[in-house]
Design a protein that fits this description.
- The protein contains five helices and eleven strands; from the N terminus they run H-E-E-E-E-H-H-E-E-E-E-E-E-H-H-E.
- By secondary structure, it is α+β, with helices and mostly antiparallel strands.
- The N and C termini lie far apart (106 Å).
- The relative contact order is 0.14.
């Protein structure tokens, strides 16, 4: 009996040890799960705050200046995006830009913020869009080991004459909406960032009063639906033709295009940042 009792005690002790170890592992996993959920919640809150800060960098919504009405919107595919747009008035000229950093998420947003701050530093003492972009590229391409790059369109509009100087660095050419939507002729320059010592060409045109410049990032033309079809340039052209027929103002144009993309996507997940900017020269 004594031998049997010892065996039973060993079995009972082993069972208690196993139960205790199982309880310890369960408690440890619960603590790790709580910490993971807490970390995810904190990260989510920080990303939301960072997204809000990023949005505040952009002149979202409607803005009215001398001889020009503007409406812009930015819809990131994630909490943070790599698109940018901005505008300002200096010495009777309207300076504006739109850009798209390669990639999405936090790395793209960081490069966007870096380029954004540099742009207005170079704009303070320069009015030539090609020289502004050249200065930006000189800094952005130096020691660019990650090969980050940014497509960018930069324009300077004389608010008295309608004379527009512009430079395009690998971005989608904007549309000019007058009697009908027409894509603005743009030279094929390199994007900003990947190559050093790049020259960027300056181009010029004159806008007639009542014309609207419509700018966008490729989140518009490359938006997918559930059938993996892209929104494309033909649909963009058609929507803009409808906007011209309805004589829509910048806010109406942007909202109409945005709604057209939403209807086209049919519930498909947004795959890229979408930025739309409409500028009417009055």
């Amino acid at each position: 009996m004594s031998h049997l009792s010892n065996i039973l005690n060993v079995i009972a002790g082993s069972a208690l040890l196993a139960l205790g170890y199982s309880h310890y592992r369960t408690t440890l996993k619960l603590k790790q799960l709580r910490k993971s959920n807490s970390d995810k919640s904190r990260m989510s809150s920080e990303l939301q705050l960072a997204s809000q800060i990023q949005q505040n960098m952009m002149p979202l919504g409607h803005r009215a200046f001398d001889n020009v009405d503007v409406f812009g919107t930015l819809l990131p595919a994630r909490e943070m995006g790599g698109d940018l747009f901005d505008h300002m008035i200096r010495d009777g000229k309207f300076y504006f830009c739109i850009g798209d950093v390669c990639g999405k998420g936090v790395p793209a947003a960081m490069f966007m913020a870096y380029a954004h701050s540099l742009l207005w530093t170079f704009t303070r003492d320069e009015s030539n869009p090609a020289r502004i972009i050249r200065s930006l590229n000189d800094v952005a391409s130096k020691d660019n080991v990650s090969c980050s790059f940014l497509t960018l369109f930069y324009g300077v509009l004389d608010l008295q004459t309608g004379h527009l100087q512009y430079c395009n660095a690998g971005h989608n050419p904007p549309y000019i909406l007058s009697d009908k939507p027409v894509r603005l002729a743009c030279d094929s320059n390199q994007p900003v960032g990947p190559l050093e010592d790049v020259e960027f060409t300056l181009q010029e045109t004159t806008l007639s009063p009542g014309s609207t410049i419509f700018l966008y990032t490729d989140g518009l033309t490359e938006a997918n639906n559930t059938k993996e079809e892209q929104f494309g340039h033909a649909r963009t052209q058609k929507v803009l033709e409808d906007c011209v027929k309805q004589q829509l103002k910048p806010e109406g144009i942007v909202n109409t295009v945005k709604e057209a993309v939403h209807q086209f996507a049919l519930g498909a997940q947004q795959s890229d940042d979408l930025t739309l900017l409409a500028i009417r020269f009055r």
